[in-house]
């Protein structure tokens, strides 16, 4: 994601008029609005991709003291990139506006589908499986939604669920010294009883309660706790007073009783949900990774372990695990750098790090052959049990250990500077900054320095043996 200063919309975006942002996004119809923002459908004029653009008024944000809130929302959306979560592509700004360019989900809110009547059990199960996968992914990265409800669950063209609206989300950094959250938030009908008690709550258990209410609504077509009087509804929630309709199976009733347990200490956990017999029916364990801002799934088969596609319709697993397909044929030539690429290497011109978690990584120039660089990176990855994925002259090294920010993922790309020189760029693509710095300092950097030293020594030895010089002809 990049945070880019852009030219203003060519027409007045505050009154719903169409316009062009940075010559890239043609703004279309208004999709919705709130106190601080309006959301428009838009089209990327270069790729024809439909997007949703959330337009925020800077003045209103400043007056409302929402700057920290907006920054936190950006950081959260960057942290939780998952096939069942609405994706943030980039953030742009003018003097008066901030633009969130997001995935446009055509199917609308799940609420609209449920409002027409209860869903078939198989359909409700599929949505619940995708919801739990997305929530589990968030929790593993220290993100808690705190406002899960059918209005915040969207459906894409394939009928798959996408969690949206992380405006009330919290991160683990906000937990009080007692290990709990204390902010009263959420939608009344979906709020957990411990939130009503105002004594602090575990946000993981609060999200699970909301998932339970959502499952009930999908299957019944109405709320488990409902009353025209809000205080009367809160009493029902606090006491856990609800009844399952007769068409609920016994397996589903048992699961709901565990999800809507008023005691957060004994409420079912996500690992237990995923082992539940009702939940597991038809649940597919399909891994995914992100490349070029696209989700790619990896499904192991007997014929082709590691074959992958970009079909997002079947992705529901929160883990990331990638196998490397054996390379066939000659190694492709590295991409050449033009003048603009070289200029962008200067920190003064490179804006890509703005609003990112940090500019971790390095670049270096070497005469070492591309094949040797790639072999060395694969060798390092094998020693530390990292998964390697290759595409042309790009490599992705991914750790297996899940941290708060996901597994450590390192990208290495090789560019051609001259026929005899290449630029190697190493970047942290995911995971914890401290873990990356330790791995880079202890493993990557020394190994690559040794490779370059060995190559230089080999070249010098070869030149001495032939009575020549190791320097290129034009440097003599």
UniProtKB/TrEMBL annotation:
PROSITE patterns: NAF, PROTEIN_KINASE_ATP, PROTEIN_KINASE_DOM, PROTEIN_KINASE_ST. Its cofactor is Mn(2+). It catalyses: L-threonyl-[protein] + ATP = O-phospho-L-threonyl-[protein] + ADP + H(+); L-seryl-[protein] + ATP = O-phospho-L-seryl-[protein] + ADP + H(+). Residues 25-279 form the Protein kinase domain. The keyword Ribosomal protein does not apply. GO terms for biological process: signal transduction. ATP binds at residue 54. It is an enzyme of class 2 (transferase). Its EC number is 2.7.11.1. Gene3D superfamilies: Kinase associated domain 1, KA1, Transferase(Phosphotransferase) domain 1. It holds the Pfam family Pkinase. CDD domains: CIPK_C (cd12195), STKc_SnRK3 (cd14663). Keywords: ATP-binding, Kinase, Manganese, Nucleotide-binding, Phosphoprotein, Serine/threonine-protein kinase, Transferase. Residues 308-328 are annotated as: Disordered. It comes from the Eukaryota. GO terms for molecular function: ATP binding; protein serine/threonine kinase activity. Residues 332-356 form the NAF domain. Belongs to the protein kinase superfamily. CAMK Ser/Thr protein kinase family. SNF1 subfamily. CIPK serine-threonine protein kinases interact with CBL proteins. Binding of a CBL protein to the regulatory NAF domain of CIPK protein lead to the activation of the kinase in a calcium-dependent manner. This is non-specific serine/threonine protein kinase. It comes from Hibiscus syriacus (Rose of Sharon). The lineage of its organism: Eukaryota, Viridiplantae, Streptophyta, Embryophyta, Tracheophyta.
